[in-house]
Amino acid sequence: xxxxxxxxxxxxxxxxxxxxxxxxxxxxxxxxxxxxxxxxxxxxxxxxxxxxxxxxxxxxxxxxxxxxxxxxxxxxxxxxxxxxxxxxxxxxxxxxxxxxxxxxxxxxxxxxxxxxxxxxxxxxxxxxxxxxxxxxxxxxxxxxxxxxxxxxxxxxxxxxxxxxxxxxxxxxxxxxxxxxxxxxxxxxxxxxxxxxxxxxxxxxxxxxxxxxxxxxxxxxxxxxxxxxxxxxxxxxxxxxxxxxxxxxxxxxxxxxxxxxxxxxxxxxxxxxxxxxxxxxxxxxxxxxxxxxxxxxxxxxxxxxxxxxxxxxxxxxxxxxxxxxxxxxxxxxxxxxxxxxxxxxxxxxxxxxxxxxxxxxxxxxxxxxxxxxxxxxxxxxxxxxxxxxxxxxxxxxxxxxxxxxxxxxxxxxxxxxxxxxxxxxxxxxxxxxxxxxxxxxxxxxxxxxxxxxxxxxxxxxxxxxxxxxxxxxxxxxxxxxxxxxxxxxxxxxxxxxxxxxxxxxxxxxxxxxxxxxxxxxxxxxxxxxxxxxxxxxxxxxxxxxxxxxxxxxxxxxxxxxxxxxxxxxxxxxxxxxxxxxxxxxxxxxxxxxxxxxxxxxxxxxxxxxxxxxxxxxxxxxxxxxxxxxxxxxxxxxxxxxxxxxxxxxxxxxxxxxxxxxxxxxxxxxxxxxxxxxxxxxxxxxxxxxxxxxxxxxxxxxxxxxxxxxxxxxxxxxxxxxxxxxxxxxxxxxxxxxxxxxxxxxxxxxxxxxxxxxxxxxxxxxxxxxxxxxxxxxxxxxxxxxxxxxxxxxxxxxxxxxxxxxxxxxxxxxxxxxxxxxxxxxxxxxxxxxxxxxxxxxxxxxxxxxxxxxxxxxxxxxxxxxxxxxxxxxxxxxxxxxxxxxxxxxxxxxxxxxxxxxxxxxxxxxxxxxxxxxxxxxxxxxxxxxxxxxxxxxxxxxxxxxxxxxxxxxxxxxxxxxxxxxxxxxxxxxxxxxxxxxxxxxxxxxxxxxxxxxxxxxxxxxxxxxxxxxxxxxxxxxxxxxxxxxxxxxxxxx
Length: 1036
What we know:
By secondary structure, this protein is α/β, with parallel strands linked by helices. It has four domains: 4-340, 3-Layer(aba) Sandwich (Rossmann fold), CATH 3.40.50.1580; 354-548, Rossmann fold (3-Layer(aba) Sandwich); 678-921, Ankyrin repeat-containing domain (Serine Threonine Protein Phosphatase 5, Tetratricopeptide repeat, Alpha Horseshoe), CATH 1.25.40; 922-1036, Serine Threonine Protein Phosphatase 5, Tetratricopeptide repeat (Alpha Horseshoe). It is 45% helix and 10% strand. It has a five-stranded mixed β-barrel with strand order 5-11-10-6-12, surrounded by four helices. It has a five-stranded parallel beta sheet with strand order 14-15-16-13-17, with helices on both faces. Helix 43 (967-973) packs parallel to helix 45 (1001-1007). It is globular. The relative contact order is 0.05.
C-alpha cells in the first residue's frame, strides 16, 4: 500500500474519459493508499510522472460543476497532506476569435490575462441599477512554480515545436482498445458554424440539421507544416455551473473578457487548491456539440500536463516540508465549500421554485411615498390593537388609487423595526407571476427558506419529491408545504397587498379562511389590502370577522394627498417655472386634496389631450423609421398620468426600457373604451403585427436589431388571431401571410409557438396546418385542409396537428381534424398521443370526444407514459374517472413517477391517490426489479404514497425485491429519512433485515454517507457489525 504523505502533485479530472486519458501518461502506477481521511469519498489512482509522485482523482459519475470539483479537492488535500501542486486536466469548449484561431484538438492553458488570474467565473456576480452585470468572484492565479514551468515549456515549443500528437499516437498503438474513441478524428469533422446557426435539438448530426455548406460555416485556412497542430493557447478560461451552448454569449465574453475556453469545474478550485487548468478543445461552446473529439482532446491535454511536470524538478523540501499552509487551505476550503454548497443549493431551490419577487413592488411604493404618509394609520387604535396581537387578521380596504400599496409599504417598514419575522407579497395586475395563489405560495415559501429556519426541511423534501427539481410542484403540494412550515414557525406577520389584483380570488379566500380558522396557525398574523369588491365585501367579514375589516379614512387619505400635492407644487420644476400665484396654489391644494375623495385620480383623456396639445410642437409624426423621434422622457412628458417608464433587466442582464400603465385604475378606464374590448383589440393587434411582419425586410441576422418589434409581433399575433379570424379581412390577411413563403419563413425564424423558449428557432419545418392548429385558428385550419393540407403530417413538439389542437383544448379543430381523417392514435411528439396531451392539459371535453372516437385509453409513450398518469399528475379527477370508466390500466408503468398512483400522491392530490389505490386490486404486484408499490415508493422517496400504502391492511411491510432489499433497506440506501422513520414507526419493519449481499439498512446508509439515517437507525436498535467486505460502521 502507498503512503499518502509521499504524494506532492494532485491531478483532478471531471469525466471518465479524462481520467482514462490521464492514466495513460503515468510512467508507473502505484498501489492504493494505505489510508484516506474520514468521509473522503474519492477514488484515487496513484503513480509517478517523471520523478513526481502523482495522485489522481475523478469527480463522481454524473456530477459536474464548481462545487463538485471543490469537494473532490477538499477531500484530496485532507487525505494527501503534502500535495503542493494541483492540475485540473480535461476537455472544454473553445472560444475562437479573429485574434485566436482556437480549433478542435487544440490545448488551452490557464494563465493570467489582464486583471484575472487564469480562471474567470462568469456566472458569479451582481446586478447594479443602471449598470451592466458586475463579476465579483475574484479567483487566485496558478502557483508561480507552475507558471514558470508553463513559460519554460512555451519557450521550448516555440523553438523546437512539440510532439504531443506523436505521444498520443504511440500510446494508442499499445492500447488498441482505445483507438476508436481516443484517436484524432479527421480534420473535415472540425466545423465552426456561424454564431447565428443554431442546432435545433435533434439527435441528427449537424450536417443534416444545420448544413455543412460554406454559407453556414466560418472559413478558416488550413494549417500548414510550420504550424503547431494541435496549437497551444494561453489565457483566460471561463468557468461556470452550466454548460455553455450559446454562441452569442460565447462571442460576447470572448470579445469583452479575452476568454479562450469554457468549462464547468475550475472556478471551484482556484481559491483553495493551487491549480493550473489545462483543457483540450472538443467543441466550440455552442449548440453544435461534438462528442467525436472528446477522447482526443482529453489525450492531448494529458500529454501536455505530463510534459509540464517534466519541467518541474523534484525538490526534497517540497516533499518533506509539512504543509501547514495547505492544511489551513483545506480548513478554509471546508468552510468555503459549506458556504458555497449552501448558496448553490439555495440558488437551485430558487431556480426550481421561481418565486415572484415582491421587493420590486415595495421599492416602487417607497419611492412614491411622501414623508409621514400613513402615520395616521400606525397611530390608529384599530391598527394598534391588531399589532399587539389582540386580532389575528386585518383587512384594509379602499377604492382604486387611494394609496393602499403605499400604506402597505409603510406598515412593512413599521413592523420591520420591531424585529418581527415578516413575509410579504404584492399582487400585481401588470405581472402575471404575481396574480395567483400559486405565485404567492412560491414567494412566501422561498422567503421562509431564505431565513434559514429549521422548517425549511419541508421545502427541501418537496424539492426531492419532485425528482430533485426536475418537476414542478402543484398548487396543492405548495399549500400543504407552506401550511406545515407556518405551523412550525414562531410568531410571524404576513402582509398581502392588492388581493383584488389576483386572478384566483376563490382559492385566495379559501387560503385566508384556513389561516383564520386553524388553531395551530393562531400565531400567524395576517394583514391584507384590497378594493371593496363584491367577493371580498361578502366573504372576508364572515371569514375573519366584521370587526377586523377597516375602511381607510378618506379624510386622513385626503390629508396625505394634500401633503403630497403641496410638496409637488413647491419642488417640481414644471410648476416652479410657471410662477403660480399663492391663491392659485392654494386652490389646487384644496381642489386636488379635498376633491380626491381619498384617491389619486388618473388623468382624464380630455385633460390629457389638452396637455399634449400644449406641450407638443405642431409638427406631425408618422409611423415609419424616419418618424422615430420620441425618447422615453418625452413620452412620459406627454402622458404622465397614464404611463410610466420602467427600466428592467432580462435574464441575460440586458437593460430593457419598458412602458407600463401607471396604475390599475388606468387599465380599468381603458377597458371601458370600445377599442380595448377583447374582440376589437385582437383585430387591431393581429392586423398591425401581420402588416408589420410582411413589410419589414433585411437579413435574418439584423432584422431584430433593425426592427425592435419583430420578435414581439411574431410572438403576439397568434395569441390574438383566434379572436380576430372571424372578420373576413383578418382571415384573408392570415392566409396570405402563411402562404407567402418569404413571410412564413421570416416569421418562423423569429418565433415558433412550440419552441417559445428559443430566441433563434430556425426556419419553420412543420406544416402550416400544424401552426394554425397550435394557434387555435379554426377557420384558417379548415381553409388549409380545403386547399389540400395533410392532416397526418408528422413533426414538431406535439408530433402532429391533432396532438397540438388537443393540448390547446380546441374542440372545434379536434373535431375538424378527426372528420378529415386524422389518425386518433398517431404516436409521436411530447405527449406521445392526442389523448395524453388533452388529459395532461385538463381538457375534459376533448378527452371525452377522443374516447368516444375510440382513442386507445392505454396507449403508451410520451412524457407521462399514458393518459391516466398525465391526468393524475395534474390532479384532474374528472378526467381520471373518464379514463378509468373506459378501462384505463391503473397498474400501467411508465412516465415520470412510474404509475398514476404515485403521480397523484406525490403532487398533493391525496384524495385522487386514495381513489386510484382502490382500483389497485393486487398490492403485491411487482415491477421488473421485483419491487412492490411500497418498495418503489421507498426507493424513490415517495413519502405520501408510502403513508397511504402503509395505512391499508393489505400491504406487506417487508417484501423483498430481486436484490433481497426490503422497503426499509431501499429507503436507507437512498437517503429518504422520512420513509425510514415512517417504516420503523409501524413496528412491523425488520431493522436487522439483510439484502442478498448481507447488508443491513445501517450498513447501506453508511456506505452512502447518509449520516442522519445512520444515527437514527442506531438509536432504533439496528445491529452494528462488519459487512462481508470488512467495512466497519462509522459509529460505534
